[in-house]
Amino acid sequence: MKSALFPLAACFAWLAPLGLPAADRPFYGDPPDQTHPWAIHDLNRPQPKLVTPGTFSSAEQPGRPPSDAIVLFDGTAEALNKWESDKPEGGPTKWIVKDGAMECVPKSGYIRTREQFGDCQLHVEWAAPTKVEGVSQQRGNSGIFLMGLCEVQVLDNYNNPSYADGSACSVYSVNPPLANALRPPGEFQVIDIVFRRPLYQDGKQIDPGYISVFCNGVLVQDHTPLEGPTGHKARAVPGPFPEKGPLKLQDHGNPVRFRNIWYRPLPPRAAEGGTVGILSPAATEATRRETAAALRADAAKLADKPVAQMLRLAESLVYAPDAAAASSVEQMAATYLAGLKATPEAELEAKKEDAKTVLQAFQYLVKFKFLPETFAPKAELDAFVKSRGWDKAK
Known about the structure:
Helices cover 22% and strands 21% of the residues.
């Protein structure tokens, strides 16, 4: 199970030198367990990827997407090539680009992205016509269809009530929005969506999927569970979604405008082999073994730094037991203690912090039963540290 964003040995080789603050070393927080492959505050846990934030949009001007966003419409006429007619045969769309926005041409039909994607963070900005015409569902109506299956409603509900589960930012026919946070017609509404599709395994639901929606910075859908594809006049029927699908925008007969459309793929959930959430025991064990193997490979490169090598190898025992590794740690510990005891008195003070770090590691490993209570080097080092008064706080 490949879970690390960066190779462990390369990313954390800097941990080998001692002298780091306690919270930045191994042997600190509660260890891994059956469903959590990492310790608390574990520096072997994959680091977040670096993303340069974008800028916020205003009603007048679109913001800049984050650095890892996949842009679906940037306001240029060329960007319309990323979209096609939603007819079975596809083909060019008749929607137009005007003043940096993509505008629905009434009666031309839905459009869809040529690209397909699944779980995502989606950003869409839309504006209802400035000229107010119609009431209820006939006014500024369109829709954002995630994977072409699940609609987040687009509707000019500014001083224009309609049925609640068809209001702007409703999960259409499923769940009304928590609030009406719309700006007046003609102004762009900034919509941010977090979408997770339903997951099924062997015909059984293992994750219902959900949608969270922000409208102009206001939370309007709070982790709303999905009930299957949405529809008009019909209750959603629970069922699996495909892995990927297009983003669709609806032609409901109104010249609604769209701009600044982009998405960020989300990592897989634990239920589908990812590391987001509580893992299964099997996935946890696989990840722990992978981490232990990386640590042992890293330790093998530290032959010129015997103390760091010993601690790196000892650290691997936290993730997966290994008799040979445990035996090597004991032998290295005996060699370390012999060298420590043979150090001239004038040079001994310089060994103080290393000795306390090694002792803390041994105490952790014994406390959580990664090494036996009878692990002799722990008792010997503890006695040596106390004999020097190094255990006393200053």
